[in-house]
Amino acid sequence: MPNGKWFTKDVKHALQGQRLKVDIANMIFDTSETIVETNKAAGDYKNFEFELIKYFSLVPPISEEDFNRMSINDITASIYKTAYKHYNDKIERNAATAFPLSKTFTKPGRPL
């Protein structure tokens, strides 16, 4: 659960367009870290898989054997890298889809 002070600051940045990329990266890292720490401590790879799908729509980039063998920091780094790349790819796909439409609606002389 987000700390109220930090959550409010992140929302303020998002509304003002400041540091948005950094805030999103931090949120992805914090979520990755929480998922890994919780499930590594419980030794629960199945719930780890479930939470990655639930929060990031990702299939785990590591196997159950790697999950049991790797450190929390290494797993977190792997999950963060994969989730952040997935996020950026999604943003690029959305922009590529939306840009032609935005050009259509912003043609000179076309009423809004």
Q: Per DSSP, what share of the residues sits in E-state strands of 2 or more residues?
A: under 5%
Order of helices and strands: HHHHH
Secondary structural class: mainly alpha
Helix content: over 70%
Q: What's the gyration radius in Å?
A: 18 Å
General description of the model:
By secondary structure, the protein is mainly alpha-helical. The chain has one domain (17-101). Helix content is 79%, strand content 0%. The protein is built from five helices and no strands. It has helices at residues 4-16, 20-42, 45-56, 64-69, 72-105. The longest helix is centred in the C-terminal third of the chain and has 34 residues, at 72-105. The protein is elongated, with a radius of gyration of 18 Å.
Keywords, separated by commas or semicolons:
112 residues, mainly alpha, 5 helices, 0% strand, elongated
What secondary-structure arrangement, pairings included, does this model have?
Layout (H helix, E strand, L loop, with lengths): L3 H13 L3 H23 L2 H12 L7 H6 L2 H34 L7
In short:
79% of the residues lie in helices and 0% in strands. The protein has helices spanning 4-16, 20-42, 45-56, 64-69, 72-105.
